[in-house]
Amino acid sequence: MRNSFPPSDGGRSTTDRRQQSFPSSSTNRYNSRSAQSSPPLNHCTTWNQQHSQYHNTNFPPNYRRDRAPSSGFSPPVTRARPNFIVQLLHPAAANSDTKLSKKQEIESIALLCEIPEESVHVPQFGCIAASFSFRQWVDARSAVVALWDYRLQGRHDFVPELIPNVVVPSDMDELKDRLRDLFSSHVLSLMENGQGVKKVRMEIDDKSRQVASFSSKRGLKFEVFEKKKALEAERDLVVNRLDEFNNAMKSILRYLIGQDGYEFDVDDEDDEDVAVFSLEGAYDWRRIHYLILRECRRLEDGLPIYAYRRQILKKIHCEQVSLRISKLTSALWVQASFESLEYRYSSYAVVLLY
What is the separation of C-alpha 313 from the centre of its chain, rounded to a whole number of angstroms? Predict the structure, then answer.
């Protein structure tokens, strides 16, 4: 007897039920992906799995790693860190509000020193006027020496400074020797053929000719005799100025020569009684150049007190001296007071400003 109730599967046949028990291939693929993509409950996701869904920014979209990139794509190029950096500082490096350097001036300096254009960087602000990057020590050394050479010649006012990222003691000693030769040759050239020295020598020759124009002291009128005596005093003053300049230059040469057993030919017949400059320790090329420029300027200015500097310093060295300066004090005494403070005799001199 047949059952009058409908089958539990809604009337479907046995064949249909058999087909339903086996899922389709698409369903299997979906379930397999779901099983693979969904981690178990106790699974901890790693950092690489979290970021694996983001593509590499170094590659273009739709880029496949198993294929070569297209011809139009070029990966980003990172510049290698330079081993040596040469900076040009403004003359007043301590002042951060210095004027901007002209790019054309920096480019002309780089052209003079044969520095490649790609190595030049000109910042817009700050005390650094320009910087030059180098990979090889030979190029950096040549650039520093050339920049100092053109500064000594007056071609620019910037101060070269080397920043080595790779420090080799022998390289630093080589640079020091080269700069020492350069500065020593510059000082000797100023003593022999400097513009200020030529001018002073011409002045000495002119006054000597005027003195020689007087035949002799006998038979001269009193006015003529006094005029000749004044010319001799002026000539001697100019000679003392030149001697003081030469003594200052020799003092700088002794400082350059005296370190590390460095040998250089200097005439030491007339040893100075008083040390004019207090130069000790490592070389400060910026300060040395400042002293050279200052002595040249004082020689050309021709202040009479410059000729008696060593005598004043010798008195200050032997005795304690007090100098009182007021608003009505002449510029000669002001310079004398600061001469004592500028050198090593500040403990012997007391300067009172009113």
Answer: 34
